[in-house]
Design a protein that fits this description.
heterodimer; A: about 280 residues; globular; B: about 325 residues; 3 domains; six-stranded antiparallel beta sheet; 14 strands
Chain lengths: ~280, ~325
Amino acid sequence: MRLGWSAGQSTSRMKWLAIITFIVLVAVYTYIYFIQPFSSFWNDLASNVLSEIASLASAVAATMVWAYYEKSDSPRRVWSYFAFGLWLWFAGELAWGYLNMTVGEVAIGVPDFFWIIAYFFIGQALLEQYRILFRPTMRELFGRAVVIAVSVFALTLLVFLLFKPIAESSSLLETIVNAFYPSADLVLALAALWLARSFQGGALGHPWIGLLVFTFSDWMNAWLQLSGIYAWSLEQGNLLSTFSDILYIVAYLVLAYGAFSKWLFLKYGLRPSTETR
Amino acid sequence: MKDLFSSLPVVHQHVSAGYVNALIQMHRHELFTGVMITKYPAGEMLASVFWEGDHLGLFQCLEETNLTILRQNWPVELDRADADASLLALTVEELRVFQMFLESVTDGAEQSLLSAVELPTQLKDWSSLEKSSLVWVSSGRFASIISITGFGDSTLECVDIVDGSAHFSRHNVNNRDAFAGGEYEVVRYTCSNRQDIWRENGLRLAFNPLMQALIARFQELAGRILAQRLCDQLSGWCAGGGWKISIASNGVINRQFFVSLAQAVRVYHGIIKRFQEESSLAIGPRLAENLLLEVLAKMEAHSRELLVEYLHSWHGLGGFAVDTRKEITEP
């Protein structure tokens, strides 16, 4: 469909459309959380579905970016890993939502398998980006990979020791996994920000910012779960749990927006201002 | 450098000054690109240079050098009777080589007689020197003019003249095909590559690999589609300014004939500035600047110095030039 918009107008309008959609999504989520307009089952289902939609949005946006690159393009490798990681996160969200609806409190298990494996792919995406930007030797690349792995391990250990006193009712595995998420988020987000520094001011650096929001969200989530404050259903809801869950879907939406704005740039960027679509 | 045009057939004999002026008007009207030679009974030879109908220069050809005639003196110089006129239509590449011969101030000339086997070796030796050279080669009906940039640059730009028509070719001196058998009369004119005409030539030769490397690196960072759009933007900007330069992901096609070094610098600088502005939108200004520094650092020393010197002379890129020098001097 041709709307007669210039490339700049198309970009601007589609960005606003995405922002408004995401705000509406967060507003509906918040409304369901606070007002709980339906029965307990339907409220939980609606909040889970909205989380999954947010996760799906980020995976779809990343896949759109991946698909826009040509097979021989170097950035395509970055986005193949990144998109795959986000699809695994979506699979984790689906599994978590299903278990939450069927058993209530979700123990460490299938969703965590997807989420943890996803970190490997997202880490690989960052290493690919690093490789394109700095053209390191294999030795340097291996060195960076080791630094990331050791940092995640050391930080997980530190967070584990930090969480241990408040995680009396949790199993050892549960505490380790909950310590892993914010640690991996933080290391990946810092690595992503360091890479995004190179793209400072450029449209291609935006998507990585979403990872930073995940760090805050996962820190809070892990603390709430291990301390027993986390509300497994909306009926038991509390302010901190609500804030943590809202931040969680905001993180997905920021990631989705970053990837979507990159896709818009790939589609409409660097075109003459007079060109219409 | 009278030899340069000795092989051209005379197309108008014993014509009046008025007829020479009529020929000039006709070339303007026909948007002629090339050289018109007028020879006079006293032995004087004048070369008029045309670029798409514009009469850009008038030179007096002497034995070992040429004199540029100031525009205000053209009517007087051309107002002579009994001229024999020759014409040589040229492409922009050919005209550039001729312009080098006509405009360069030579330090001296050395003549030799070389065999077809010796000639490529001799050209290789001359190209390894720092000084620029212009070489005139002739054998029977065949004549060729060759420009050698100097600084050890292995690029040879040749214009072969056979039966009154010219043919341009560019070679790497290491791969220069052997000349056809026989002996060649060779005249080598040496000149300083500090002259504007040589600087402009060096800038053009350096600009092409610079842009090619910049686009290739941008493509690596941003993908082929954005790189293609960036090339379209740059080519569009050139076309908008009336410059015949098109930029593609696999290289630059430069068919622009610049009338001065300043004009060339202005256009090349404009393209690089535009590249930085447009690429910054995708990869950010920091990376765009680093990209330029990275590519410059990998270029041959004389090309890099030339680019830095002339880009530096334009506002807004002062820091860039200083940074480049710093980067280059770092171990």
